Amino acid sequence: MHLDHTHDGASAVSADARRPDGSRRALRIGLGGPVGSGKTATVAALCRALRDELSLAVVTNDIYTREDAEFLLREAVLPPERITAVETGACPHTAIRDDISANLEAVEDLEDEVGPLDLILVESGGDNLTATFSKGLVDAQIFVIDVAGGDDIPRKGGPGVTTADLLVVNKTDLAPYVGSDLARMAADAKAQRAELPVVFQSLRTEAGVTAVAEWVRERLAAWTA
Amino acid sequence: MSRAALLVLADGRFPAGGHAHSGGAEAAVKAGRINGAASLEDFCRGRLNTAGLVSAALAAAAALGVDPALLDSAADARTPSPALRVAARRLGRQLMRAARATWPSGELDALARAFPKGAHQPVVLGLVARAAGLGPEDAAYCSAYESVSGPATATVRLLSLDPFDATGVLARLAPELDVVARAAADAARNVVDAGVDALPSASAPLLEIGAQAHAAWAVRLFAS
């Protein structure tokens, strides 16, 4: 979706890399994955890791409440004006893939009101393994699963696991308690994703979100290059 | 003009944000006023002949080339609930975004500049119809149909209503939709000479009250 550039715009459209004033817009990274896999916790950890070096903002897509947005506000990971909640009409995957208009509006308002921004994290509501972000909404996407959701998820694949730019396997500290085989998950993920990267993380350890934050920095370096 | 453009614009999958709105159905379901196919039909019939008629006339007038700023004020005057005004402008802005990418037009660009946070959705819809080469009846049909298809789809999700029953409701309302769309287009043609006061001003107080209550809920599936 691109505007004919003879039409000057009051609002940027979709994937255009430039804002109406000609400046480069923020890099937009989507985080999707099943309910309870740790998307919001990962977003919170990323905000803490990156907020001193980057100007960033978050859009949440809750399914029926503002809980994810309120969690981020309560944790005070960012000032409240940098967090926006989008309502999704019972269909979180529609709002990030088929009809991205409300999310684009949220992204655009954040850039207008608290910009300039380097990075916007767009968190999907918890959904199923087929939920992916439209390329019109985000520049890269992270799919977050966890070891307690079943160590067969990487083997089952699906668009999220197979095509996400980064697969995060979260809550590795729980693996011994739920009988999940991390080596098997890694091998299955490799088989599904070939060269696409996979990060195993536990936000309860000291390393925490370090590897994901580093991946985000690399994407940002490529975006601004 | 391409008549098929009407199918593109009226398609429930047209990516203009409508999927997140229930057209008042969520509030009506919670209040017990919609609890099955029969009461969904009653609700839709009421909405079609009130809010649906008004929005169809606004859309038809915009499609005829009536000043959209005047129509936007007329829409405000016909929408007592602040929550519904916010929802209408948000949907108008989202439709504008989708339409400018699909049917680029100088008139749409001008409206986007005049209303960066969104004009009322029916007004935008009428201008979009114009940009797509459609006429006032087409715009009226599209708006009137949206006024009932939105609540019907939302009720399928809210009540797990049989989708065939919900679609049957829409089919049974089709003859009334014809009547409303024609009345709306007639009213719009009067606006050209008589001004925006010739627009219908039918109102459904429970829709307005329900929207205000709904906007304050902490837990809800739909934005309105």
From TrEMBL, chain A:
What is the name of the protein in this document? Urease accessory protein UreG
The cross-references to HAMAP family, in alphabetical order and at most eight, read: UreG
**Residues covered by the CobW/HypB/UreG nucleotide-binding domain:** 29-199
Q: Give the similarity note.
A: Belongs to the SIMIBI class G3E GTPase family. UreG subfamily.
What is one term from the GO cellular component aspect held by the record? cytoplasm
Keywords in alphabetical order, please.
Answer: Chaperone, Cytoplasm, GTP-binding, Nickel insertion, Nucleotide-binding
CDD domains from the UniProt entry: UreG (cd05540)
User: What gene, per UniProt, encodes this protein?
Assistant: ureG
Specify where it is mainly localized.
Answer: cytoplasm
| GO BP | urea catabolic process
* Subunit field text: Homodimer. UreD, UreF and UreG form a complex that acts as a GTP-hydrolysis-dependent molecular chaperone, activating the urease apoprotein by helping to assemble the nickel containing metallocenter of UreC. The UreE protein probably delivers the nickel.
TrEMBL record, chain B:
Q: What is a single molecular function from GO for this protein?
A: nickel cation binding
Cellular localisation: Cytoplasm
Q: Where would you find the membrane-spanning parts of this chain?
A: none
**Keyword hit for ATP-binding:** no
Q: Where the protein is mainly located, per its record?
A: cytoplasm
- Key words of the record: Chaperone, Cytoplasm, Nickel insertion
Example GO CC term: the record gives: cytoplasm
Task: Please indicate if the UniProt record lists Ribonucleoprotein as a keyword.
Answer: no
List the HAMAP family hit by this protein, alphabetically.
UreF
Question: What function is annotated for this protein?
Answer: Required for maturation of urease via the functional incorporation of the urease nickel metallocenter.
Q: How does it assemble?
A: UreD, UreF and UreG form a complex that acts as a GTP-hydrolysis-dependent molecular chaperone, activating the urease apoprotein by helping to assemble the nickel containing metallocenter of UreC. The UreE protein probably delivers the nickel.
* Family from the record: Belongs to the UreF family.
Q: What is the name of this protein? A: Urease accessory protein UreF
Tell me what organism the protein belongs to.
Streptomyces olivochromogenes
- This chain is encoded by the gene named ureF
